[in-house]
Amino acid sequence: MMPEARIVLSAMLEALFSLCAIAKNQRLAADFVKEDQRRRLKFLGKYRMLYGGLPKDVDPQEIEMLEEELKEEKSQNLDGVQTTTGYRKYL
């Protein structure tokens, strides 16, 4: 039972770090959302490699726009907080 409790505690603490950091600096909320977009885009890239295309329920134009937006942000060095450790520095 203890390993399961530690896993649950770890997940709860990660969420708590994110929530507290966002409460102290609301700009981080936008970074949090963008990080989710980056992860989804990375997943779609892996999906393309494995299956040779996008899932049927995904709009290719929307993905192309998102890719361009994220590449532009990256070139302007606007990367947001990417890890729980990153959020901890705001606490």
**What structural class do you assign from the helix and strand content?**
mainly alpha
Instruction: Identify the overall geometry.
Output: flat
User: Helical residue percent?
Assistant: over 70%
Query: What summary fits the major beta sheet?
Result: none
Q: What low-confidence regions span 5 or more consecutive residues with pLDDT below 50?
A: none
Order of helices and strands: HHHH
Number of domains: 1
User: Radius of gyration in whole Å, from Cα?
Assistant: 16 Å
**Separation of the first and last Cα atoms:** 31 Å
Count of DSSP H/I helices: 4
Strand content bin: under 5%
Beta-strand segment tally: 0
Overall residue-averaged pLDDT value: 80
Account of the protein in words:
The protein is mainly α and 91 residues long. The protein has one domain. It is built from 4 helices and no strands. The protein has helices at residues 2-24, 27-51, 60-75, 84-88. It starts with a helix and ends with a helix.
Summarize the structure.
Helices cover 76% and strands 0% of the residues. The chain is an all-alpha fold and 91 residues long.
